[in-house]
Amino acid sequence: MFVLMEHRIRAAAIIVKDNTILLVKHKHPLNGTVWWVPPGGGLSQKETIYDCAARETWEEAGLKVILGKILYLREFIDLERNCHQFEVFILAESFSGAPTIKNLVPTDLDAKYIKEARFLSKNDLAALTVYPEIIKGDFWNDYIAGNLSTRYLGQQTG
């Protein structure tokens, strides 16, 4: 039997400060799996990817952002939710505020998963599960060299 898969567009902000990157810690409420990602989420209504990434950054991390260049495009097949996500990661040109998860809406699904938002160094990331995985390696080389360009990261299934 053919089961129709949902489709979702997700936009996220990549925010760098003093050789650290802002990531949001997620913990699965049932199996305890932990992963870190840039703040972001699904587009709603007639939102642009920039509006979405800015809104989600405020909700998940308490920061106001001005977004610039699209850095990464990635597809993620979420088997648990039967959803094919197309993800857009946008570099922040500037931000204000301090990381906090106090803006999460308690009744939203995010509130069950998100546990923390903080800036982490490349060394901090070594022992963590981070998505997209490029953030643990090539991102830093490109960032330091000033050579950040839009890249398609392929498709991942999880």
Helix content: 10-25%
Principal-axis shape equals globular
- Under CATH, the homologous superfamily reads Nucleoside Triphosphate Pyrophosphohydrolase
Oligomeric status of the shown chains? single chain
Helix-strand pattern, N to C? EEEEEHEEHEHHE
Can you put this structure into words, describing what you see?
With about 160 residues, this protein is an alpha+beta fold. The protein has a single domain, classed as Nucleoside Triphosphate Pyrophosphohydrolase. Helix content is about 20%, strand content about 45%. It has four helices and nine strands, in the order E-E-E-E-E-H-E-E-H-E-H-H-E. The chain has helices at about 50-60, 110-115, 120-125, 140-145; strands at about 5-15, 15, 20-25, 35, 40, 65-80, 85-95, 115-120, 150-155. A five-stranded mixed β-sheet has the order 5-1-7-6-9, with helices on one face. Strands 2, 3, 4 and 8 form a four-stranded antiparallel β-sheet that branches. It is globular. The model has no long low-confidence stretch (mean pLDDT about 95).
In short:
The chain is α+β, with helices and mostly antiparallel strands and 158 residues long. The chain has a single domain (1-77, 86-121), classed as Nucleoside Triphosphate Pyrophosphohydrolase (Alpha-Beta Complex).
